[in-house]
Specification:
alpha+beta; 14 helices; 6-stranded mixed beta sheet; 17 strands; binds flavin-adenine dinucleotide; globular; about 500 residues
Length: about 500
């Protein structure tokens, strides 16, 4: 029997994978008995902020990771497909439908028992009864102290911030326009192909690895009319003139920030900076980040605006829109005043404001093996954000491997990990082998996947070649795992 602590993205995926291997699982989730600062429901795998799983194409690393997870039978990917909403080239979901699908599936599985309680001490583990700890960035205090005692000084933390959501019918439609960047839209059918990623920034273009070339190479489908207002494209865009942008920027840098406890130790993940932090870095920083206008043409002027804020549909009903890449820690009163300077949001009603939160994670390279086993206690596994990855998909991916390996341990089979030529294997390798002195949780990127010996010339060609090799390597690993010839990774990585 496997005990899994935490029924978030990682714990839910781990439970599914282990049970799919025929091993009984007890999944401990503390909500609703004990809430966290950001979860709102008692559902498993609740998405606490964006409803986006980022890009869904093979020419970006998170798209590749998703494809690998699909091939490994991921429940998170299956539920995401079932609850998909339009979001350009990204995979975004109706968060309630998504969490419901996971909760119902796990609750109905004959090998899974769900216990609603806070686990306050790290349970004893053994090869017959391993433990997977997947308690996320908001691990409760008592368990955090236990984890700190187990891993020693590698137990770190920093702050993150979440984006606001507005009520759709309070958006001034005469000022905003509907479009996907570069006119690219998946429409409502969610068809997939070889296309790029997102990372929670506008049109989900936050990835540093996303070149203009990639965008141009995509066969441009006609924009589809399928949104709530019948326009074209998947995003509502709030266009700024230069004067409007300057006024907004000035208000942002003058706005009052919520007090951050222990501010000296504040550390933000670079891919998820609060807008006011970006604004303080320079007047144009936002125009090259979440407010970039490239690929957008305002139909009223026929020109690219000076800057733009993108609003993405946040639920299937289409009555909530989130401000893409607009995480913030500004005090709520000030937040409403500043955000209403965005053209089209002058009368906006906010369903949720942005906020600051704690993020707890271990120093992966000092604590974990590639199999997600804790080196000091190999019958205990860590998975998800607290294991030192960043992002919904990455958290679920780590849970997938931890669940498979915990099940292998119970069955007396070798523990293994896909090779570093795959996205999922590269993530495991990064978490267990990066430089511990400067360790930061990472999204998956092509930069952490093993380089091609003879890469093709173009950036896009190179990414697609890496993706093709990855999927071949994954199939090979699956086959070897199936017939019991996959090498046992713990010995390899500790050697
Ligand atoms: C506020 C916030 C916003 C974020 N926004 C995004 C985003 O927009 N996009 C993105 O890709 N990533 C985001 N992340 C990062 C990360 O991807 C998510 O936190 C993701 O949910 C991590 O998955 P997880 O399974 O590790 O943790 P979680 O999904 O948080 O699951 C952990 C579970 O463990 C439970 N738990 C905690 N302690 C105990 C205990 N002692 N006993 C029993 N149960 C316990 C919790 O209730 C929770 O259900 C965000 C993180 C935070 C905190």
């Amino acid at each position: 029997m496997i005990r899994i602590i935490g029924g978030g993205l990682a714990g839910s995926e781990a439970a599914w994978q282990a049970a799919s291997q025929g091993v009984a699982v007890t999944l401990h989730e503390m909500r609703p008995v004990r809430p966290t600062a950001v979860h709102k429901t008692d559902r498993l795998a609740e998405l606490v902020c964006s409803n986006s799983f980022r890009g869904d194409k093979l020419d970006n690393a998170v798209g590749l990771l998703k494809e690998e997870m699909r091939r490994l039978g991921s429940l998170v990917m299956r539920a995401a497909e079932e609850s998909r909403v339009p979001a350009g080239a990204a995979l975004a979901v109706d968060r309630e439908r998504f969490a419901d699908a996971i909760t119902t599936t796990l609750a109905g599985h004959p090998l899974i028992s769900i216990v609603r309680e806070e686990v306050t001490t790290l349970p004893a583990s053994s090869e017959r009864a391993p433990v997977v700890v997947a308690t996320g960035p908001l691990t409760s205090d008592a368990l955090s102290a236990e984890i700190a005692a187990l891993v020693g000084t590698g137990h770190l933390y920093f702050y993150d911030a979440i984006s606001p959501i507005v009520l759709a019918d309070t958006i001034d439609r005469s000022r905003v326009f509907r479009a996907s960047r570069w006119n690219r839209s998946l429409g409502c059918d969610g068809a997939r192909g070889i296309q790029p990623r997102d990372s929670g920034s506008p049109d989900d273009t936050g990835s540093p690895e996303r070149p203009a070339l990639r965008l141009r190479r995509i066969a441009e489908p006609p924009a589809r009319a399928c949104g709530v207002d019948g326009g074209e494209g998947d995003y509502l865009n709030c266009p700024f003139t230069r004067e409007e942008y300057d006024r907004f920027h000035d208000a942002l840098v003058a706005a009052e920030s919520a007090t951050v406890h222990d501010f000296d130790k504040e550390r933000f993940f670079e891919g998820c900076l609060p807008i006011e932090v970006m604004a303080h870095r320079g007047r144009d920083t936002l125009r090259f980040g979440p407010m970039k206008p490239v690929g957008l043409v305002d139909p009223r002027t026929g020109r690219e605006p000076y800057a733009a804020v993108q609003l993405r549909q946040d639920n299937l009903a289409g009555d909530h829109f989130s401000l893409v890449g607009f995480q913030t820690q500004i005090k709520w009163g000030d937040q409403a005043r500043v955000l209403r300077l965005i053209p089209g949001l002058e009368q906006a009603e906010f369903v949720r404001f942005g906020m600051v939160h704690r993020n707890t994670y271990v120093n992966g390279p000092t604590v974990l093996d590639e199999t997600w086993q804790v080196r000091r206690r190999p019958t205990t596994f860590f998975a998800g954000q607290m294991s030192g990855v960043e992002g919904y998909v990455e958290s679920a991916a780590s849970g997938l491997l931890a669940g498979l390996n915990a099940a292998a341990m119970v069955k007396g089979e070798p523990l293994s990990c896909p090779p570093r030529t795959t996205a999922i294997g590269a993530l495991a390798y990064y978490v267990s082998h990066a430089n511990p002195a400067h360790y930061e949780p990472s999204n998956v990127t092509f930069g952490i996947i093993e380089a091609l010996p003879k890469p093709p010339r173009g950036k896009m060609e190179k990414k697609l070649a890496i993706a093709e090799r990855a999927l071949r390597a994954l199939e090979d690993w699956r086959a070897r795992r199936h017939d019991g010839t996959a090498e046992s990774v713990p010995e390899v990585s500790r050697a």
